[in-house]
Amino acid sequence: MSSHIRALSPVQTDPGVLVHPGADRRLATEHWLLSTLPKDARERARKEWGEHRIAMLPLGTLFSAVRLPAHLVYAVAGGTRPSREVDAFLDEALDGGPVICDPHGRRYYLIVPASMPRTWNEAVDDWRRRDHEVDFLGRESYLGVPRLDVTDPDPAIASYWAVPMSSAATLCAPLTVARLISAAVHMLGKGADDAQD
Predict the structure, then answer these.
(1) pTM of the entire predicted model
(2) How far is CA 112 from the centre of its chain?
(3) 4 belongs to a structural domain
């Protein structure tokens, strides 16, 4: 064994910048998600994550969700089923905003801030009226939230993170979500027009 062991230099960061290892960030994110529940219910959710890899969490306090049918996502992302390519498209289109995929129900849930602007809700109502099945899920709704390490489809699990939540309180920006939906609606309309021609 050599007596010439070189010491590793510490990682240099800007003053005031905290560097969190992935495990710490994941723990902080889990804690943030579970803080939507009363204290006495958090252990139950941890147990659900441990046993079933999915837990029901209430929406409308820290975060809410926009539910999109898979056909709307595929219209803009390409594809006909959940895939790494569709997930990568969503990651890029939503600037890393978290998305849960329910392949059995053929739905995607874009995780958004709990308080959405009224005008955004009016747009959702318009998309719903036009049979696009877009829905905003807030207070009095629950969502099956996968454990943070469930990032691939598995027939034994109801859903997975198509775009994982990278850190606590990292959410999809409402304007970015609206643009994605508008592009998908436009692509569907264009496809219908092309079919008629």
Answers:
(1) 0.83
(2) 8
(3) no
